[in-house]
Amino acid sequence: MIEFRNVSKSFWTGTQRKVILDQASFRINLxxxxxxxxxxxxxxxxxxxxxxxxxxxxxxxxxxxxRISFPLGYMGGVLPKLNAVENSxxxxxxxxxxxxxxxxxxxxxCGLEEYFEMPIATxxxxxxxxxxxxxxxxxEFDIYLIDEGMPSSTDAEFNRKAGSVLRERxxxxxxxxxxxxxxxxxxxxxxxxxxxxxxxxxxDSLEEAKQVYNYAQ
Length: 217
Ligand SMILES: Nc1ncnc2c1ncn2[C@@H]1O[C@H](COP(=O)(O)OP(=O)(O)OP(=O)(O)O)[C@@H](O)[C@H]1O
Description:
Residues 2-216 form the ABC transporter domain. The chain is α/β, with parallel strands linked by helices. The chain is built from seven helices and eight strands. The chain has helices spanning 44-52, 84-94, 99-110, 125-138, 156-169, 183-188, 206-216, and strands spanning 2-12, 17-28, 34-37, 59-64, 143-147, 174-179, 191-196, 199-203. Strands 5-6-3-7-8 form a five-stranded mixed β-sheet, with helices on both faces. A hairpin with a 4-residue loop joins β1 and β2 (17-28). It starts with a strand and ends with a helix. Adenosine-5'-triphosphate binds at residues 11, 13, 18, 20, 38, 40-46, 180.
């Protein structure tokens, strides 16, 4: 469970205060995957970072009582000068998991071939995104935090494999996806919220949230 209680967050830009959340209270329960729709630049990354604990609220409380993932795309634990073998084994040890299993899982999902033995620093943006998604899926969490949907990969094989592992994980786990688009949410979320002008409104169904979001665009 992740619960926001009267959470406010804003940034001072030098000329104005950019409000991301204004006294928001909501709860994400285990078992119901949620999408959060918000236009670009309105606070999706800040919100997901607050859920994971990477960003602190200015006011209010954020309560967590489950195993919550790092946000997809967060490169904090990954060392660019090491290759994917070394990085996946290092992360496995950090989480107390079997390095052989985590390495083989990532190798299978990513399809990076010989680049799996090359430093992460040599990867394209898409290859990096594939490795980070594989790593996220290799670790077992109760809530997976995904910023802007699946990595933009043109690799159909990767999308198929990652999508099917995520669906399998979601039989037990919950996903929170923040996005400015509705299509990725349709694949994985039952309900959704709309974030606009610092206000986050939860809707019971994705359909309802989509209508409100599209109407206000
Ligand atoms: N540390 C900061 N200091 C000042 N402004 C910030 C800071 N972090 C984010 N912002 C601003 O807050 C707003 C929301 O940023 P955020 O990255 O959360 O939005 P986003 O919806 O994820 O954006 P995008 O859709 O472009 O990825 C943006 O205007 C951004 O410039």
